[in-house]
Amino acid sequence: MVATHDLRLLAVPEFPLVRAGDDLAALIGDALVRAGMEPATGDVIVVAQKIVSKAEGREVDLATITASPRAAELAAEVGKDPRFVEAVLAESVRVVRSRPNLLIVEHRLGFVMANAGIDQSNVAPQDGVQRILLLPCDPDASAASLRERLSLRFGCDLAVVITDSFGRAWRRGTVGIAIGAAGLASMVDLRGQPDLFGRILEVSIIGLADEVAAAASLLMGQASEGQPVVLLRGLAHTAPELPASSLIRPAAEDLFR
Amino acid sequence: MVATHDLRLLAVPEFPLVRAGDDLAALIGDALVRAGMEPATGDVIVVAQKIVSKAEGREVDLATITASPRAAELAAEVGKDPRFVEAVLAESVRVVRSRPNLLIVEHRLGFVMANAGIDQSNVAPQDGVQRILLLPCDPDASAASLRERLSLRFGCDLAVVITDSFGRAWRRGTVGIAIGAAGLASMVDLRGQPDLFGRILEVSIIGLADEVAAAASLLMGQASEGQPVVLLRGLAHTAPELPASSLIRPAAEDLFR
Fold first, then answer.
1. For residue B165, what is the nearest residue in chain A, using CA coordinates?
2. pLDDT tens string A123-138
3. Alpha-carbon separation of residue A241 from A21, A250, B35 (angstroms)
4. SS3 of A51, please?
């Protein structure tokens, strides 16, 4: 595996607010050009989930949701809006843990995460309407589409990673995680490679796209949408391409679900 | 919170092999000077756990360990060397999960991790002796000591993060995690800060030091010790200092132990 020596992450400045139906690849490309940040082969464009979801029209008006009895009961337990809980359940295949102020589910895409990744922050209230924002329908496909469009526009071979902030079972605080990826190995399997002293590494699978997402999150922050696109340059990535879904531990392997 | 716009990570080249008793602060300082990478105020020096443990003499000769009956029984279950399992148990307060080829424990420092963070790769075999490497006794203290020495040497205010690779409950692959930190806010609490539209963020605690560790891991790799020190420049970090131990979820809060 080639080593990365000099890695640079640049936030794309003055990214516009994104609305449903916007052509996100065009917005990202335009913002890169405006900033004089034309990408080159090997660069990774890291994109916050929120703007992907917004462009894909994944905002839902809470008032259009009717809570089922099950959602109402769970909402009372966790202390959330029953309509919000209904939306969480609709996006999920099972509730993993619930308690006051906490609702961890298995998202239909396989992610074990709080509130099915739905949040209410940084969604513009318009005309008094309360909106929530769901994850993209297929984040790996969203990443592949962005990758294709941007690689074509800039005449080079780019990678794209779509990130979200996840909590962890045994660690406090959230970190950036890759929910979608294209053009790079989300997971790098070093098993069978010799270590420095020639022994074979037993267990070494690296969550590369998750490390990329965490790095970019240092620039994206949480409190604003101000920097939802980050250009990462200098990453040596030569392993076979794998989507971000490969990072999801299958339920059958999972000891903690 | 001030935003990070331009983040640069540089691997310190040609870092020497570290041996028990080495003055790690001097080795890191010398390597930075040799590379023309004198650090400046605000920089974060990210250091791989392995070289901290080696300098602190945390290598143990497997032949000096006698397995208890409990270790022998557990070793048979998980398919590992009984002396290795004895070392894992000695470093741990409880076994969280065990099954063939997997042993997850709560380390005495609070980390929930495989094999108590002990590994056998990249430990030089000498005279046919099989060595294992334990975590540093107190990684936050190790980070604080490195920070003090390096800040003094370079006449500036540095931060230090000590990283290790951790598996995750619901994600495949390992990512870099901060096991020790000094001079920065390992955890940044944004609760109570308004989002882009003026609403108050409900739950936003960022695992900043873990994101720093993950970013640096992109350069450190796994298969070699070649790049165990990374200089990170450009991180806007102004929140109150918190050690890496603040990132450990207390057992009482934990729903998955």
1. A206
2. 556 667 788 999 999 9
3. 29, 19, 34
4. helix
- Cα separations (Å) of B56 from A9, B121, B144? 33, 18, 14
Task: For residue B156, give how far its alpha carbon lies from the nearest alpha carbon of chain A (Å).
Answer: 23
- Domain boundaries defined on chain A: 8-57+135-248, 59-133
Token output for A165:
């902030």
In this predicted complex, what is the ipTM?
A: 0.93
Reading the block at residue B81, the tokens are 């060397």
Instruction: Name the phi and psi angles at B61, rounded to 5.
Output: -80, 120
List of residues 6+ apart from A56 with CB closer than 8 A: A20, A136, A137, A142
CB A11 within 8 A of CB B229: no
Query: What average pLDDT does this structure show over B205-227?
Result: 87
Cβ–Cβ contact B152 with A under 8 A: no
Q: Is A145 on the interface with B (CB under 8 A)?
A: no
Q: Which stretches of chain A score pLDDT less than 50? A: none
Instruction: Using the structure block, give the residue that is written with the tokens 């995680």.
Output: A177
Give the up-direction half-sphere exposure of residue B229: CA atoms within 13 A in the CB hemisphere: 26
* A chain contacts of residue B226, beta-carbon cutoff 8 Å: 3, 196
- The predicted structure's pLDDT at residue A71: 97
For B140-192, how does the pLDDT look when each residue is reduced to its tens digit (9 = 90+)? 999 999 999 999 999 999 999 999 999 999 999 999 999 999 999 999 987 76
Q: Does A183 touch chain B (CB under 8 A)?
A: no
Percent of chain B's residues with pLDDT above 90: 77
**A8-57+135-248, superfamily in CATH?**
CofE-like (3.30.1330.100)
* A121 lies within 8 A of chain B by CB: yes
**A 184-203 residues with CB below 8 A of B?**
187-188, 190, 193-197, 199, 201-203
Over the stretch B88-146, which tens digit does the pLDDT of each residue have? 999 999 999 999 888 999 999 999 999 999 987 655 566 677 889 999 999 999 999 99
Question: Domain B8-56+136-248, CATH 3.30.1330.100 — does that match?
Answer: yes
Fold of B59-133: CofE-like fold (3.90.1660)
E strands present in chain A: 6-11, 44-48, 59-61, 92-99, 102-107, 112-114, 131-133, 159-166, 175-182, 188-189, 205-206, 229-233
Rg (Cα) of chain A, in Å, rounded?
A: 19
Question: Half-sphere exposure of B165 toward its Cβ, with a 13 Å CA cutoff?
Answer: 24
Confidence of residue B202 (pLDDT cuts 50, 70, 90): low
- pTM value? 0.94
Q: At what angle do helices A24-34 and A139-154 cross, to 10 degrees?
A: 40
Is-contact A181 A143, C-beta < 8 A? yes
CA angle A104, A109, A115 (to 5 degrees): 25
